[in-house]
Amino acid sequence: MTLLSRRHLIACSCAALMAAGLTLPHSLPAEAASAESFISSVGNKVLAAARARSGSQFRSLLRQNADIPSIAMFALGNYRSKMPRSRQSEYFGLFEKYISDVFVNNATKLGGNALDIKGSKNTGNSVIVTSQVQFSGRQPMPVIWRLRSRGGGYKIIDVSIEGVWLAIQQRTNFVSLLNQNNGNIDALFSFLKK
User: Fold this and answer.
1) How far is CA 35 from CA 32, 43, 91, 140, 172, in A?
2) How far apart are CA 66 and CA 42, in angstroms?
3) Residue 187's pLDDT band (boundaries 50, 70, 90)?
4) How far is the CA of 43 from the CAs of 18, 73, 122, 190, in angstroms?
5) Smallest Cα–Cα separation from 71: which of 178, 166, 146?
6) Looking at the whole model, is its pTM more than 0.90?
7) How many CB atoms neighbour CB 120 within 10 A?
8) Which CATH number does 3-193 carry?
9) 79 contacts: CB under 8 Å, gap ≥ 6
10) pLDDT tens digits for 11-50?
11) What is the mean pLDDT of the chain?
């Protein structure tokens, strides 16, 4: 497996697990425990969707729970200002579809048996939840979740698998594509529509 395909797989794995975030009530004393309980519950639903190879289940979780607009705009890097407001909604939809398609294509590699929560901490502007995906017959896969306050609750804004953060990896991929096409946003739209 080449480095690029390994990174793509890891990024795809992050995308698959990213959907496990959902808004949580904001309660400072119980914040970490609530985040852990919720990630455990919803994360296991994502793994079930992977075992079932259900793109519709995953996309529903993604749509409801991940902060797609923030992640998608971050993925544009310095090209963020080139995204016309009139096309942002289309871009967010294509980004969501892209992540969902990657999930389906890699579902057999991602369908672990359970998600075990290892701990959490409040970093001031986010809550970090550490976990491991358990598999039969292979090593657990470490997963770190980053939640941020949104509208009185929380949403997943990033996920790291084996040290690779989804949002940063997608930014690397998208900026590279845009660099190769002189910053032409239409090239990214074409890529996402494939």
Assistant:
1) 5, 11, 29, 21, 29
2) 12
3) very high
4) 9, 24, 19, 31
5) 166
6) no
7) 20
8) 3.10.450.710
9) 174, 175, 178, 183, 185
10) 444 444 443 433 333 444 456 668 888 788 788 998 999 9
11) 83
